[in-house]
Amino acid sequence: MDADALDRVLRLLTVHGVFARHADGYAHTPASRLLRGDAVPTMRPYARMAGLPLWWNSLAALERSVRSGRPALEIVDTVAILRAVRRAAPAEATLLVVEAIVPDGPVDARTATLDVIMLMLTGGRERTPDELRVLLARAGFGLERVLDTPGPVRIAEARPSG
Question: Is-contact 8 26, C-beta < 8 A?
């Protein structure tokens, strides 16, 4: 390990609040503690995922994703999956969709990030309640309500329609 190169990287991370610099070296901050595997909550799996070649290759292709928009294949696949669930579900079933449903008002930074990650990695998207309502209707479900949670995900409750 090159000490000078490591110091330069740690200096950059200090500027962004990930570490704190002291006379005798660097120290953890609340942000860096989130990267520990034993932290609760932890962002370690997310940080590790962000370092994967799939992630970086997808970032390199982000411009193409932005230019092409939402591929129709993603919607067709999603509707096909939901239709299969509908066929297997009894009439009194409740479908719970747990995802980062985009709110009508201000958007949480985590939700906005997840939406671009979906675009980048799969060509998919996080949906608004209205978009989810239309998608569920195409598959034979009616959206009943969307429940907030303490985190970036929300829970959509749907029931078979017709």
Answer: no
Range of the domain at 14: 1-44
Rounded to an integer, what distance in angstroms lies between the CA atom of residue 133 and that of residue 140? 10
pLDDT by residue (tens digit) across 37-88?
A: 999 999 898 889 888 888 788 777 778 777 776 675 566 688 999 999 999 9
How much of the chain is helix, strand and coil, in % rounded to 5?
50, 15, 35
Give yes or no: residues 38 and 102 share one domain.
no
| Same structural domain, 25 and 90 | no
Taking CB atoms within 8 Å and a gap of at least 24, the contacts of 139-144 are 139/79, 139/82, 139/83, 139/85, 139/86, 140/82, 140/83, 140/86, 141/82, 141/86, 141/95
pTM check: above 0.70: no
Instruction: Check whether residue 67 and residue 97 sit in a common domain.
Output: yes
